[in-house]
Design brief:
The protein is of the alpha+beta class and 415 residues long. It folds into two domains: 159 residues, Beta-Lactamase, CATH 3.30.450; 175 residues, no CATH class. Helices cover 33% and strands 20% of the residues. The chain contains twelve helices and 17 strands. The strands form six sheets. Strands 3-2-16-15-14 form a five-stranded antiparallel beta sheet, with helices on both faces. A three-stranded antiparallel beta sheet has the order 5-7-8, with helices on one face. The radius of gyration is 22 Å and the shape is globular. 38% of the residues are buried.
Length: 415
């Protein structure tokens, strides 16, 4: 009887574990059918590489309205991965939403935004040499976030929105498992709860002043999140214990996919899931989510460092090659602590192909974090490239009842 109960308990545990994880065998079979030895090696070791993949097919009806079908591979919203720069995407969207809600005459995304120092370890920003007029603005920060994943730009938008408002916006939209708790600069939990006073200036005149803010709302950190077998701390000492990510930023891959979809295709999600954006906001975001560093005039980038596919992981970054002019990737990427993430919408205007891919992989074979010894180049980027290529080749042959009209995403990158 005890043996039966033990077996029954094991089966229940296996059932609940499987229920948390989403996998469509069809998607795995599609990848395995033509996979390289490297991709097969990764697919055979899901626990080592902690990969998750969402492939979203898009089909249009006769009125060009998109319909979405999601396929999953090893997707588990309870399995933590460090989102790194992926948090910059919802922060950019939320910044524009807050700006629209201010309804202050003369304040828009192009208005000069000066950041003051209001609490310990905070810093001021009064100029921005990358901007055409030499002044910081929400528009300029968003450009830098999507073009090269600029950390300071993210910090300034985090400070403009405020930690409490930022998280409440995400939770109200249904992303209750998500949290954004910190800047990308060394600060403790309390310091990150405080955000700076901000002034909006026009022609040297103050038109709106936002006071410093504090988030009194507690986060639920009851679930411990430990990764790896060791890590280097801030004092450059090796600690032979897992790294603690309990209080770090956290957004499940499914949420990131839906957040991107809600902006690229706002009509495809419920009204409460949408960000309150203007038509100009949408056009602005589509441009900078897809523009390449070499196409940017302000900011101007050194393209030997910020090469064409610098932030385009799926079937581009691995060999730093040129992206075909008929293809655009509207996306955001993140990389840190051995985790690589990309959430992208791919459009091929020549072949009338469109689809979304969202993926994460962990490439840290020695299990030591913060040592900058990760297999990004050897494993991570090649896997993203091959996975993207395999899905793209399938999309080229996939029958569609109605050919998509993709004019909405054909943009002018010259102005």
């Amino acid at each position: 009887m005890k043996r039966f109960l033990a077996t029954k308990g094991c089966l229940l545990l296996c059932f609940f574990a499987a229920a948390r994880q989403k996998t469509d065998p069809w998607l795995e079979e599609l990848l395995r059918k033509q996979a390289s030895p490297l991709l097969l090696h990764v697919l055979n070791k899901p626990d080592n590489f902690q990969y998750q993949l969402i492939y979203t097919q898009i089909d249009r009806d006769k009125h060009n309205r998109p319909q979405f079908k999601h396929y999953f591979l090893n997707v588990d919203r309870n399995r933590y991965f460090n989102p790194a720069s992926m948090v910059k995407m919802p922060v950019a969207f939320a910044a524009l939403e807050k700006l629209n809600e201010l309804k202050k005459k003369g304040v828009n995304k192009y208005t000069a935004m000066l950041t003051d120092s209001s609490y310990e370890r905070q810093t001021r920003v009064l100029t921005d040499t990358s901007a055409a007029n030499g002044l910081p603005s929400i528009a300029q920060y968003i450009r830098k976030i999507f073009l090269v994943s600029d950390n300071d730009a993210y910090n300034r938008l985090y400070e403009f929105i405020g930690q409490q408002t930022l998280n409440e916006k995400l939770w109200q939209k249904g992303y209750t498992d998500s949290r954004i708790t910190r800047r990308f600069v060394t600060m403790n939990e309390e310091q990150n709860r405080h955000t700076n006073a901000i002034r909006f200036i026009q022609d040297g005149r103050l038109i709106y002043e936002q006071p410093a803010a504090y988030n009194p709302t507690p986060f639920d950190f009851s679930k411990k999140i430990l990764t790896g077998k060791g890590h280097w701390n801030r004092n450059d000492s090796l600690i032979n214990e897992p790294m603690d990510f309990t209080t770090h930023n956290n957004i499940p891959l499914e949420d990131l996919q839906q957040i991107a979809q809600s902006v690229l295709f706002p009509e495809s999600v419920k009204p409460q899931q949408r960000f309150r954006l203007t038509e100009d906001d949408y056009r602005f975001l589509y441009r900078y989510m897809s523009e390449l560093p070499r196409e940017s005039k302000h900011p101007k980038y050194d393209t030997t460092e910020f090469f064409e596919s610098y932030t385009k992981f799926f079937f581009f970054k691995a060999d730093r090659g040129r992206i075909p002019p008929s293809i655009r990737a509207f996306n955001k990427t993140g990389w840190s602590y051995g985790f690589l993430t990309d959430v992208t919408y791919i459009v091929d205007f020549e072949h009338k192909v469109e689809f979304m891919l969202s993926g994460v992989i962990y490439v840290n074979s020695d299990g030591i974090l913060n040592d900058n010894k990760y297999e990004y180049e050897q494993v991570g980027y090649p896997i993203f490239k091959e996975t993207g290529q395999l899905i793209y080749q399938y999309e080229l042959t996939r029958p569609r009842k109605h050919q998509p009209n993709l004019r909405k995403f054909q943009l002018n990158y010259q102005d």
